[in-house]
Write the structure tokens for this entry.
Amino acid sequence: MPSTKDLLQDAAARGIAYRDDIASREVAPLPDAVAGVGAFVEELAEQGTPDEVILAQLDEIGSPATVAMAGPRFFGFVVGGSYPVAVATNWLTTAWDQNVGAFDMTPTTSMLEFVSMSWMKELFGLPESAAAAFVTGATVANFSSLAAARNRVYTDIGWNVEADGLIAAPPVTIIIGDEAHPTLIKSLGLLGFGRERVVRVPVDRQGRMKVSGLPAIDGPSIVCTQAGNVNTGAFDPIGEICDLVRPQGAWVHVDGAFGLWAAASPAKCGLIEGVGKADSWATDAHKWLNVPYDSGVAFVRDADALKAAMSVTADYMMPENEFRKPSDFTPELSRRARGVDIWAALKSLGRRGVAELVDRCCAHARRFAEGFAAAGFDVLNDVVLNQVLISFGDDVTTRQVIEKIQQEGTCWCGVTVWQGKTAMRISVSNWSTTAEDVDRSLDAMISIAQSV
Ligand SMILES: Cc1ncc(COP(=O)(O)O)c(C=O)c1O
């Protein structure tokens, strides 16, 4: 049996080799490598396997069958890569194996959550009083924010939703934009509000809510806005919506999975003007901040509402003390120390580095749009952020081109349908993407598109 030291060094060496290769390999795995993962399918053996054999098998079969999502030419979904410092601190934190539940048990990781929460609130212009929950991603950040919203709007009308649930509860009006992300709608379902019992507000050609389409606020209401449409990157007019509905008592939530990071850039913060007026905000760190999966954060202005929705007590748990207790704010009781990766990335970048990261990705997105437009292809969105939508002609042709791009391996982009038209979606969210990566990807994609 290898020593702990040998095993961890072997893992580190293999991880380093993987990352060394990531910019030069094909982005999609080769078909043989994908077929190779069948070798993992076996009966659970009676006898255990030596640790070093397990690691070697994982690397030799598993590594080639990964998509190079952490590399500079993966433009699918809105994925982001991972800064080396965040991977390194993640490895060390994994070795600590801390369960961030109470300060007394986990002083280091509790403190780093507190610090990274404070830094993010400052970067985004959110109220100092806001509480934060470190969760798996924007889906659960939306869920956590809306759980706090549910608590507050029901408390305001004298209904204890935590104790008495929703079955006999008075109705709450949920207002969403017609382009709300499906995970926000899923969160509404999980919270018992229903995925379809919502008032949908019409949107414009970029997917922004039309303020003129907002219903009058009547009774307990939650308005869900979006900072960064997953297709176009467009922003709802959040400040304007807050000014209209908050005086009527509505709670305003912002789904800012990637778009909230625009607030950190002096060049881009105009897009998200007034965001600090809302009541809750969901974002991801594993997207634009480029920390390893999984990492999202919910911020809630009314810390008591989040705590009322999330906290649990039991006789065996650590008692309350004056320090923030991380598990008071999250759906999970036990979890890993996500705040450390965020702290490391923010400390490494500084305020200026975060702004430069956002601006650089947006500039690369514009470069893509200009390159495709110059080659005669349609750019379907106003490229205000890091998302670009390209049409290669009719829907069938566009799908064919995207399939060939994915197979060719220089880069990887996904398919979407934007307001009835099939499109290729480019998201530039990786810290390591360079202008050369953009040009190389453009050359490959345009030559494929011209040959179809
Ligand atoms: C606007 C928006 N909200 C929510 C999500 C879900 O994020 P996650 O996959 O991190 O849960 C996404 C993912 O792309 C998104 O773009």
Notes: Residues 338-374 form the longest helix (37 residues). Residues 89-345 form a domain with the Aspartate Aminotransferase; domain 2 fold (CATH 3.40.640.10).
